[in-house]
Amino acid sequence: MEDIEHIEKEMKLIGSDGRRLDGRSFDELRPIRIEAGVLRRADGSAYIEWGGNKVLAAVYGPREAHPRHLQDPARALVQCRYNMAPFSVSDRKRPGPDRRSVEISKVISEAFSSVVFKEQFPRTSVDIFIEVLQADAGTRCAGLTAASVALADAGVPMRDLVASCASGKIDGVVCLDLNKDEDNFGDADCPMAIVPRTGDVVLLQMDGHLTYDEFQKAMGLSIDAARRIYEMQRDALRRRYSVTHEDILKESPPTAPVAEERPVTSEEDFGPEGI
Amino acid sequence: MSEEIVSELMRAHIYRLASTGQRVDGRGLDQPRKVSVDRAFVKTAEGSARVKLGNTDILVGIKMSVGEPYPDTPNTGVLSTSVELIPMASPTFEAGPPRPDAIELARVVDRGIRESKMVNMERLCITPKEKVWILFIDIHVLDYDGNLFDACSYAAVAALASTVAPAKSQGLGDDFPLPVEHWPVSVTTAKIKELLLVDPSLDEERMADARLTVTTDENGDIRAMQKGLSGSFTYEEVKRIIETAQRVGRDIRPLLQSS
Fold it and tell me: For position A274, what pLDDT does the model report?
């Protein structure tokens, strides 16, 4: 225990060259890779690797809402379940929902509620499942970003994708996208999500200590990053759904008989006897 | 696991094909789907494996900690297996406490590993009666397309084989790989009317009358069995299923062993 306290006091999160422990500058994202359509059973799915985070998202629906008393006769429910695998963190997490994941599930549901065209699907629910397979801080942002792609993959009508990123403060400096050590030993963490097309903020949480100026700086970093993440989301969907010329050739090889083009004669139009 | 219905057309098609020795996905009746193993998928775990059996997709993470042994086995480590049928994996899975089918699944996977003595649990004793290693096998079903018994078992075995005990962080000397001594392989056969199909797909599993899981070791000896569903097998059928399990097990074992 003494060792840990010692480390905590000594831990310098930003070096003398202004670089963070993993070599990033204050406004740099960790590497992000998004893939759409990765599961067979789900209506829509996506996988994201974001730094050391590995997160899967799946969407089912719109489907009949269960239990029935939850059904809304005027619109669809948007329900999210955020869950961490027991092996996703260094000390095994007991399986099942805890208070933290219940809260995260709730704020993510609410974020998506504001973009899904719920009125088109009365009495149904759109179920979003987020599974954190490996965690390295920022899992809710990674999960939300992946779930957004999964919703699009499922063909759920939405105003826009939702893009998400956190900023925080470490060693007194406002920084983008904290990793696990920075989150544990830092001074503040502020996850947010926006609708990039309108700039609407659909998720915002904060813990720690930020001055008003620092908050504005953090939001500026996050909004800028969310716009970059938005392009990655769109790119993942394009890679999933774009069709190349080679794909078309593969689907229908040119060996299929091609109708010969020739002038239509009156005989073919009306038969040998005319009209 | 079986609330979804298989249409009459599909049932008839599956049965008609199977009675001529064929299957919808092109396999023979005694041929399992393709197994792919991706090791060390999760770095936060002491060992992990992501296994695909056809389109069934399983992720297993192994966590280890130090704790007390059970009073009746003071010299052996503790093995704990749990399965989460998360709602992501199928429209029929619901959130909540594990249902009987998830518990059966976890216990059958556990039995194969425990009874084959795959991991020498006595070597996971640190101080008799006081301190032993506790081994958590957490099975996460990501995509359910039939035959969870075998897919979960393969993922658990492959994950255990890649596990390194975090002894250094506990002040117990150097990290060491788990003492793996045996290689159990589970092979499940479904019975549809009078026909036997190895490694049933989702639709085959849903219309099956009975199911038998046989776990064999590298000598072909039987280490665990579990019969499921309401149908029955003749003794001749049971023998045929065991022989198939031994043969299929020999083919699959190297895939789980190689690292």
Answer: 44
State which residue of chain B sits closest to A128, comparing Cα positions: B88
User: Any idea which residue has 């590993």 for tokens?
Assistant: B113
Q: Give pTM, 2 decimals.
A: 0.83
Share of chain A above pLDDT 70, in %: 87
Q: How far apart are the first and last CA of chain B?
A: 32
Structure ipTM: 0.78
B59 contacts on A by Cβ (under 8 Å): 85, 133
CB A150 within 8 A of CB A57: yes
Q: Do B136 and A86 touch (CB under 8 A)?
A: yes
Task: Give the model's pLDDT for residue B4.
Answer: 66
DSSP bridge pairs for A77? A125
Is residue A53 a contact partner of residue A116, using CB atoms and an 8 Å limit? Answer: no
pLDDT of residue A264: 52
Find the closest chain B residue to A85 by CA distance.
B140
In the block, residue with structure tokens 């009508």: A157
A254 vs A246: which has the higher pLDDT: A246
B interface test, pick of A45, A81, A92 with most B CB neighbours within 10 Å: A92
Q: Which of B57, B63, B143 sits opposite A86 (nearest CB)?
A: B63
A60 near B CB under 8 A: yes
Take residue A83 and report the two structure tokens written for it.
């869950």
Complete DSSP assignment for B2-38: --SPPPHHHHHHHHHHHTTT--TTS--TT-PPPEEEE
